[in-house]
Design a protein that fits this description.
The protein has 289 residues and is α+β, with helices and mostly antiparallel strands. It is built from six helices and 14 strands.
């Protein structure tokens, strides 16, 4: 179905040969895209993004917590070969990290809670724990973990997890889809997190190839595409669009008409979902208006 054919069908449902009303005409493309997004959920397009994870080694396995008194400065030089670090602090102060990329200041005032600072490391790195800007409180450098590797696809997040930015690999990323993560061709049953298009694996996750299963964002159409552009939906899904788009267009000016076409759409939608579940064909009434 082309955009022009869809527009003609929607106009027919509104007893028109074309969409003459300017407000309705301008609302057509937004209504189409809204309809595409709703229908895309019935048969979402999925993809798999594969990456390789290797548990990094901690180059400071024997690090012990350090208490900093007011006015004191604590310095920790990171071992050669450090490529990522994670430092956990508590109290009040400023953590200053310096490496080949420059200096980063991390002020904190946690009370009895903790805060975590994480970065990839370039060249030689140093951590400096000080009072900070006017701070005079006690602070604890609870843990420092210096890793020998950092994935090219991500950084260690605040919790010390390795972050694989799936959204960067697929700009059309929409959401993670079941089974979400696969390992060696099977659903992964270990610990992981997902957030903002990113997959987070703990450093202890097994070495190997992982696959993030994702749902792609619904495709859209624009005025610039022209009437000959194809509606970006499977043919069976596109057949549900006319009544759905009509219900959106006439919702304000003709609510009864809009409600009728939405109910027609819902019946067709239910028949389509039944067919997907293998429950056999369902007869669907015409518009009957």
């Amino acid at each position: 179905m082309t955009v022009g054919e869809l527009q003609a069908e929607v106009a027919y449902l509104g007893f028109e040969t074309r969409l003459n009303d300017e407000a309705i005409r301008r609302g057509f493309i937004p209504a189409v895209n809204r309809g595409i997004a709703e229908l895309d959920a019935l048969m979402p397009r999925t993809e798999r993004v594969t990456f390789y994870h290797r548990p990094p080694a901690d180059l400071l396995p024997a690090f012990s917590s350090i208490r900093k008194s007011p006015g004191e400065t604590v310095t920790v030089s990171l071992p050669d070969g450090t490529r990522a670090l994670s430092a956990r602090v508590s109290g009040t102060g400023t953590l200053i990290f310096s490496d080949g990329s420059g200096e980063t200041r991390f002020p904190f005032a946690t009370g009895r809670r903790t805060a975590t600072f994480s970065r990839n490391v370039t060249g030689s790195g140093t951590l400096l724990l000080s009072d900070g800007d006017g701070g005079t409180g006690d602070a604890d450098l609870i843990a420092v973990r210096a890793y020998d590797s950092a994935s090219a696809d991500g950084l260690f997040d605040e919790s010390g997890f390795l972050a694989y930015r799936v959204r960067d690999a697929r700009p059309d990323f929409h959401a993670f889809a079941p089974p979400f993560v696969e390992y060696r061709g099977a659903p992964y049953t270990g610990e992981y997190r997902t957030a903002n298009g990113t997959l987070l694996l703990p450093a202890s996750a097994p070495t190997g190839e992982y696959t993030a299963v994702i749902r792609l964002a619904p495709r859209t159409v624009s005025e610039a595409d022209g009437s000959d552009a194809t509606v970006p939906l499977d043919g069976a899904l596109a057949a549900l669009l006319p009544e759905l788009v009509a219900s959106f267009l006439w919702l304000d000016d003709a609510p009864e008409k809009a409600r009728f076409y939405y109910e027609t759409y819902l019946r067709k939608n239910a028949a389509f979902r039944s067919a997907l579940r293998g429950e056999g064909d369902r007869s669907v009434r015409g518009n009957g208006w």
